[in-house]
Amino acid sequence: MARLADYFVVIGYxxxxxxxxxxxxxxxxxxxxxxxxxxxxxxxxELFCQPSGWQVVPEQQPASFFVAVLTDINSDRxxxxxxTFWECLDNPQVTGxxxxxxxxxxxxxxxADVVQPARVFAPKSLxxxxxxxxTEVFRNCLGLIYTVxxxxxxxxxxxxxxxxxxxxxxxxxxxxxxxxxxxxxDRVVPGVACLQPGQEEKAKSLRTITLGAGDxxxxxxxxxxxxxxxxxxxxxxxxxxxxVNVLYLFCAALTxxxxxxxSSSYQxxxxxxxxxxxxxxxxxxxxxxxxxxxxxLLEVLSTPTPFIIGVNSFFRSExxxxxxxxxxxxxxxxxxxxxxxxxxxxxxxxxxxxxxALSMVLDPELEVADQAFPPQSTQPSALKIQDKEIRAVxxxxxxxxxxxxxxxxxxxxxxxEPVIRFHKAAFLGQRALMEDDFxxxxxxxxxFAAFVSExxxxxxxxxxxDDLVANQVERIRQEESCPHKVLNHVKELxxxxxxxxxxxxxxxxxxxxxxxxxxxxxxxxxxxxxxxDEVSVQLFIDHAAAKLKTAPPVVKAEVKSMVPSGxxxxxxxxxxxxxxxxxxxxxEVVRNCxxxxxxxxxxxxxxxxxAVLRALKGRGARLCFTQELNQHVLQNRAVLDDQQFDYIVRxxxxxxxxxxxxxxxxxxxxxxxxxxxxxxxxxAGITQFAYSCVQEHTVWTNMQFWEAMFYSDVQNHIRALxxxxxxxxxxxISQQQQDGSGSRKDISALELASEQSRLWPTFGKEMQAExxxxxxxxxxxxxxxxxxxxxxxxxxxxxxxxxxxxxxGLGDVESVSNSxxxxxxxxxxxxxxxxxxxxxxxxxxxxxxxxxxxxxxFVDKVCNESGVTNEHLKALHIMIPDIVQMHxxxxxxxxxxxxxxxxxxxxxxxxxTLLPGxxxxxxxxxxxxxPDGRDEATGLMGGPALxxxxxxxxxxTYRLIFKGTPTDPLVGxxxxxxxxxxxxxxKEKKISVTAIDQYVQEGLQLRSxxxxxxxxxxxxxxxxxxxxxxxxxxxxxRYPQHVHGTFAFTVGQCGKLVVEHKTKDKNQSLKTLSRNLxxxxxxxxxxxxxxxxxxxxxxWENRSSLQSELDEDEISVSEExxxxxxxxxxxxxxxxxxxxxxxxxxxxxxxxQRLGLGTLSNSLTRSKSEPFRISTVNRMYSICRSYPGLLxxxxxxxxxxxxxxxxxxxxxxxxxxxxxxxxxxAVLLRSAGLHxxxxxxxFKSPNTPTAVPSQADSTSLEQEKYLQAIIGSMPSYSESxxxxxxxxxxxxxxxxxxSADKLRQPKIxxxxxxxxxxxxxxxxxxxxxxxxxSIRLTGSGALRLSAYNPDVGPRLAGFESPxxxxxxxxxxxxxxxxxxxxxxxxxxxxxxxxxxxxxxWEVVPIEVCxxxxxxxxxxxxxxxxxxxxxxxxGFLRCVEESEWMSxxxxxxxxxxLVVELLDTGSSAMVSLEDGWxxxxxxxxxxxxxxxxxxxxxxxxxxxxxxxWLSFGHRFSHRGAxxxxxxxxxxxxxxxxxxDCVHQIHLQFPMEFEFSQYYLKFLAYHYVSNRFRTxxxxxxxxxxxxxxxxxxxGERKSPLVCKSVWDYIDRLNKKAPVFYNYMFxxxxxxxxxxxxxxxxxxxxxxxxxETLSEAPSYDWELRGRQERAEEVADKPxxxxxxxxxxxxxxxxxxxSKVMPDAISKLLQDLQSLEAELGQTAERWKDTWDKxxxxxxxxxxxxxxxxxxxxxxxxxxxxxxxxxxxxCLQESAVGPSLNLGLDCEGGATSTPVPGRTSTSTLYSQFxxxxxxxxxxxxxxxxxxxxxxxxxxxxxxxxxxKHQLRYYNTRQDKECRGFIDLAEVxxxxxxxxxxxxxxxxxxxxxxLKTTKRVFxxxxxxxxxxxxxxxxxxxxxxDA
Length: 1916
Known about the structure:
By secondary structure, the protein is α+β, with helices and mostly antiparallel strands. The chain is built from 67 helices and 44 strands.
């Protein structure tokens, strides 16, 4: 029984505590005055009566009613029913003014303008506080009290309130049995509450109450108090918010988010909160729950914990800034979810099915809306019924979510109280919902924890949910796909829910008075609510209390029963579980393999092993594996020999490898007893168990796993305990039950527990104590057992290695174990470091301590939960360190013995091929190459599984190399190689890897900027300190202290890391020059005394002339020599002048001469009219360190001006000319951006008044003069005005701009807009060729430049714009011209700059990509092309997100704009950033696009040397080549340029002499540090180190090529790898590539890989590898050899295996020549000859046919012209004629027509007339003083002749010696004119007529010739 109301309170407006119009409430009276013991009076109740604040109003308001809910400290809810009405009172402000003294009156006068009403209305609240939620009853009772007061009824108020407070009702149906107690109130106060006649039988659920004012109410208590009572609140909530919104709120509440309801109605807020809680049943909300929150407590909303709160809409604005709160607006019907909140929704298909069911309940008409004859009765149910139907849908949903949950309960104690734990991992695993976010969060939530503790006990009262989840699962499963059957089930459930709330819906005897209408709308003043007599009310309460004491106690006869468990989970889930197609076959394989192992059939087992390891990826196979092993343990076959043990351990590791740390399928749990059972004997009394080999798995370090295992085992033991007692003592329950249940062994632990709980009260005290003690001992013994087990799996075999701590395992306890663990194991790691030394103390105690701490935490937790006594717990804590120590001692012996085992047969380590000069730094360490995120090599995309591979990692002075073989036996004979130069390493990261096979400990992941990724796991034989040594060495080699430490310098120097240069240098004079140059550069500014003597290096024409001529030549220098600058001869001695000519060469003077920019001719002959000169102002690198020594500047600018100008530019990189257009004579300049202060001065408006010309002004004038001089150099400018004025400006342009320029004008405009970032429509149609496509322009304003500055580039577009300084606009004809000079500048640098007044130059502001952007983009690109693990995002998405392509697009776009400007006759100056990154890219690309020379080998080399090396791109800094630049990171600016060239190459494949491979070669070697070419940051640094010109002097050393260009030249002579066969340039063609991202392709350099060999850019390795392969292949000649070859894309080098047609033919030609013993001709000569013959042959043909051209094989989108070599149909079929028959020159007989390739062989086939016994080349001496000639000699036994021919191909015999005349063959001796060959190569042939002198190629062949001739003679 429970009181209907605990307290009655009257709360009024507090007149004394008014603060600035904001009032307060105060409690006027409360009954009873004393608190009830079981229900203290809630504090702060006055705030909740007026949640919006206590305020007086000028007009009376209608009475209001709502129920607020308060929660006390014990989480009990108190329902406060507030009935508020308004009472009239005198305005306190007015009355206050009257009573106050003078000073108060003054204040009133100030406020007199606001008219205050004389009477106001204040609120008064009658409040009922109850623990029951009967809203309607409370409304009626409080309404009655108000009616009695207002209508002056004859009943005293005290009586009514007394009766109300003494009313007692049952909590739930069936709890009230004693009828006298029900009517007990009748005897206290007659007529208060009595049963109506004939209603006694309904007393169990009905309660009629009357308060003694002629009223009568029936209270229907619910049948089951566990089901919530909702009224209509749920249906109301769905009507207000809709299905989807409520489902969002439902999921949010279950996953513990914050929910806030808004409404202007308080009662609706309460109802909505009640409705949301009702649909969460059977879960109970356990966080903050405040349906009505007062305005004064709004700060509660910023609490960090979840909540459900309601707030009046009046406070909406104050809820706006809540970032993590879901706001549901009940009035507006919206739910707002903030961006940062992610709500996990129900798993599909549950979500969809729930929505469908709800829709059928709420809107039944939807289904028949389209029917022609809709049925009549499709109205939704009444609101009360609909409410229950919705709740039934949610009940059905929970039954599906939680089905089978009881099978995952572990009962760990039965007596005195059941203790139950839920096995979450098993539940999720069996439901196959491990990945489901929603269910994971729900099971981790507090609501579910409360659900388990409430519903877990097996013996209790059951309710509707228990029945549903146990008995109706099968029905739900069958009906879930049929919505109508679901609806019928829902309606059945709804009926039960309705019946629970309304047991007797027919009984309705409500009789409650309402106030009369006149009193509701009073005209006269009503009297205030009276003060009640407390004594009389207290009397009522005391009477009732005394009556209850004398009444007999109410026995709550709960019907307890065993809770049914329902069907087990396994059956329900099998069909959802991922069943493999041939799972039965796989299980068979696993079983067979295990039986083979135990039968010792090792060969059979070995064959099955790979299949078994693959099968063990599946859950079924893993469980099957554990069951099979279990059977063998039971047969006592646990002691194995070495090989059996090895196989079993491998399979265990593989099984555990795919288990998650949760072990949701119980595989690790099943293996746990097995790993402590299987063992092998190592020696006398020493046994190694399997657990020491399977420790490398995260599951062992997961606290939750151990808890679940422990509880599972405890449950089994407790069950066994009670089964024993029952069997032993025959302590049976009831005989019938025993008969019915059959065997006792089948009873589950929960059933046993239920039985025991039922019997508990019948046991005696001793019996109870004994059971408790037995259970406690069972738990205690299990705790000891688990302490042992955990030490087995946590202590590594080699306890000196702290293995588990290093892997993530124990360190992550906190994150994994769901916050059960108080402090993470990381603490133990911190303590294991010696504080002073900072080194890890590698004693075993570290491991011991951390393991002890881990086990202690486990023991504390499980023992506290299972009720182990404190004494036992202390004993455990004492035991654990001993257990661990004992185990460590055992392990030491095992470890010692295991080392003595014969090693497992591992693959032999393969040695890598090294380059000449490359040396091993560390010998190979055995590792596994692990697969990364690329699928090609793993076999997932088809093909063999090349990875994982087992081999070794080698560290050399140059490279990092992995070489090994795949672990997959199918491809075990292949060799897998991955390598990259150490200098290209960008990131090294430690990882931990678990491999299938053995126990691999730690790993490394190494990324390289040559797009290689080596992910390795070290084998267990590799000591961890060795790994550290390896990493240190790697780091030292990657970041040497100085550039001298790089491989390019240390090559061949005995592997010292940093080499001291103490040896005498070969190039001593060079070093002197270097030192002098540097010293002088530092002294330049100080020294003033200058000698007049000038020095100049020789010109190119007479470079080789004698020394005396040197002094007469002179570099072209300006006439006005500035004497303050040093001339060359002041520092350079005559012996060093040769080197100075190197400076000239390095400065690319050849190129400048070619372009007509400057000359090196004698000054007397130099024309004064030359616009530019080569200036030596920077020859000492004193003006700009990063510029070359010789620069091109305007003729008219003296060197002194240059010095001043340079200061305005960043890094002193002032504008210099680097290229000139031969047609338009426009020039291209480069410089850095201006210093910030220079910008303002430079673009200063001409009319700015300045009093005194400052330094800055004069500098800016000089800058203008400099630019003017450049403009003056242009012919278009000088032609137009002899006096360099602007009078002829327009006419000159009119005359010079040809029609093509006019056509191109709009194109430039559009380009400008794109470059400057103006939004532009994409050009319409494209046509291909050397020219631009046509452009469609829409509207007249399509080219308006409006994005950045209206004055920028307006003339390009040809539209009007006002003057910059606001003057009148100029005549139209002037403005339509383009400027003479465009300055491409950085937008951020040029803000606020003014344009040149005369519009001779113009600034184009663009946004350039920052170096940081390039760096970040490259990092993302590397990760996209070489992902370290499989990513969810696709490859293309990752490439796009890297933004690499858009950076290329930007650079290309700017370059194309500059090309266009130069081509139309305007000069351009690129002036971006520091002038060495983007500037270099743009300038190089412009020259490449504009000048065909740079698209040849020589030209491209020159371009890179000039623009990148001489002009100081910071290769060392950007490539992070030394320790100093390590922090700056790798920035691939040069790679970006090469990629741009690659994009252009793709679009114009016939314009480049070099191939794509050439670009890849440079991309690889510019970071490899194999050559010195790309080291250091500028020529100045190279001279300082003396490395700039040494290459020339030391070329003879065959070992090392110091320059990449020399290396390329050598290679190019040998093989056509770099040559582009499509090279067929058009004269003077300017290339204009498309630059849109859609036109760009990802470079295959980033993605291709060749695992069969290292990257193919080190050619010496290729030759050596091939030779090694040939040697290896030779012995196998007996076996038949197939001609077929399988080519694997990521394994083979495709260009090598499948070369293009021309390379193939050249290779064949070479091999034929070798066979015939001819001297091989160079490929280039062959190729040029063929091209020539093709050209002559192609002339007579009328038109070249495209179909027959070589381009058939190419994938070009456009073919512009026929190519040299043709394929032609002939009688023999299509063949490629390479014109080999023409090779013999004049002597060869021309073959008529074009013969097929077969004729090549016909001439060598033997005929009867000719038999060749022996042949080859011999040198034959001619007549006196004539040289020795090589001839082709043939020894013919048949004809008895020695014939000779001119060449091997020659068919015409040049002469013969008859062997019949030969007298003797003797050894000869060399003569003066003979070839320089060893003495033994000579022999003489003496005939009867004369002596012939011969010389063979070497001694051996001479001997062969002599023997052959001798045998011929003897045969004769």
